[in-house]
Design a protein that fits this description.
Spore Coat Polysaccharide Biosynthesis Protein SpsA, Chain A; alpha/beta; single chain; 13% strand; 49% helix; 2 domains; eight-stranded mixed β-sheet
Length: 389
């Protein structure tokens, strides 16, 4: 066998091993990480009050459907506090139309729909989301707290299910991963793979292991007992963190309490970024801060995506164009592609994504590789992270 064929066959066998390992990680995640199914609402007597806090800055496109889904919850005792953080769009008028009343007015204390309008400049050392939630929590009366984003959509049993799971698992902080909601070509192409790689690099089996030092939580759904929030110092303790979800999980465990991340695709979904600009900036921010702004680590992750998700297709296309149909090349190549499809299929299932978009994996991987390199560039030159303010 020519040396070139031998090296190529070795590459394909190595790639098959990598993707089979990834498929195993996804299968193990399926088997070991709870996937919450809708639970019945508890009786009103004895049901702890839940405060839902939603930060909103220029969320006119998302806010109303999010709030309507929250208002439709079957849970017997909850309140919603929206923190309108210096919005310049129709956010305030939407809240007014839905009859949310100013939380600072004592006459509205007993209402379940409240809004806090923030008009002051963001203090130094705070991210906008953390400041908004730290201000809003002052008016929350719940024993349990749900921090959720305006781009989420909740099934009626969301609160009941989250509470039942938190009590059953005896966790002080429960984070849930959503189903992937999309509405455009770019979202369908990129969102599932971006979410899947994040799950690959932060496997939930490790995240949820006892005494784990691997932190991964999702700020779109953080369900936290009030005593744990107060003990950790809450959002004030992580004021400058762009991934406050990771940080709150870290602080919860550091305080000796249990925190976990499960799958909640059956009870809520999220449409994270609706256009190209938001997709790029959003995932750049997430990956940059997930890897602590380490340019070296981000560059390695970009190289990993290139070697495992881009290079194989370049080599295969070149081999076919060169009429290199040797079995020593095509057989291991076929094994590698099958392993890749199996792993991708499991990952897409976890986020309830349309599996037909697996065929766009190379194009999505190229975009993801460039986003990671851009995050590495920002980190290397210590550029500030800009995200809504």
């Amino acid at each position: 066998m020519p040396l070139s064929h031998f090296l190529l066959s070795f590459f394909w066998l190595w790639l098959a091993f990598v993707w089979l390992r990834r498929a195993f990680i996804a299968w193990r995640t399926f088997r070991e990480v709870p996937m919450l199914e809708p639970a019945p609402a508890p009786e009103r007597a004895g049901a702890p009050k839940i405060s839902i806090l939603v930060p909103a800055r220029n969320e006119e496109k998302n806010l109303e459907p999010c709030l309507r889904s929250l208002l439709a919850q079957d849970y017997p005792d909850f309140e919603i506090i929206v923190i309108n953080d210096r919005s310049e769009d129709a956010t305030a008028s939407i809240l007014n139309r839905l009859e949310f009343r100013d939380v600072t007015n004592p006459a509205n204390d007993s209402r379940s729909k409240k809004v806090l309008h923030l008009n002051t400049v963001l203090p130094e050392g705070w991210t906008g989301k953390n400041r908004a939630l730290a201000e809003g929590i002052r008016y929350a009366r719940g024993e349990w707290l749900l921090f959720t984003d305006a781009d989420t959509r909740h099934e009626p049993g969301s609160l009941s299910t989250a509470l039942a799971a938190a009590q059953k698992q005896q966790v002080s902080l429960l984070s849930l991963l959503p189903r992937c909601l999309t509405g455009s070509f770019l979202e369908n192409l990129l969102q599932p793979i971006a979410m899947a790689f994040l799950g690959l690099w932060f496997p939930l089996t490790k995240v949820n292991a006892p005494n784990s030092k691997v932190y991964f939580a999702n700020g779109q759904y953080l369900f936290m007992h009030r005593s744990a929030y107060e003990k950790t110092g809450g959002h004030a303790a992580v004021a400058d963190e762009f991934l406050e979800d990771f940080a709150l999980m870290r602080e919860t465990r550091a305080a000796g309490m249990k925190a976990a991340t499960f799958f909640g695709a059956e009870i809520y979904g999220t449409r994270m970024y609706a256009d190209w600009h938001a997709l790029w900036r959003g995932w750049r921010r997430i990956y940059r801060h997930a890897f602590h702004s380490s340019a070296a680590v981000l560059a390695v992750k970009a190289l990993e995506v290139f070697l495992c998700s881009l290079l194989p297709f370049f080599i295969l296309i070149f081999a076919l164009l060169a009429a290199n149909t040797s079995g020593a090349v095509l057989l291991p190549a076929g094994a590698a592609v099958l392993a890749m499809l199996a792993a991708a299929s499991l990952a897409y299932t976890l986020v309830h994504a349309d599996k037909r978009w697996i065929l766009g994996h190379p194009a999505a991987a190229l975009i993801l590789c460039l986003i990671l390199l851009d995050a590495a560039r920002e980190s290397a030159f210590d550029h500030p992270t800009c995200w809504r303010g």
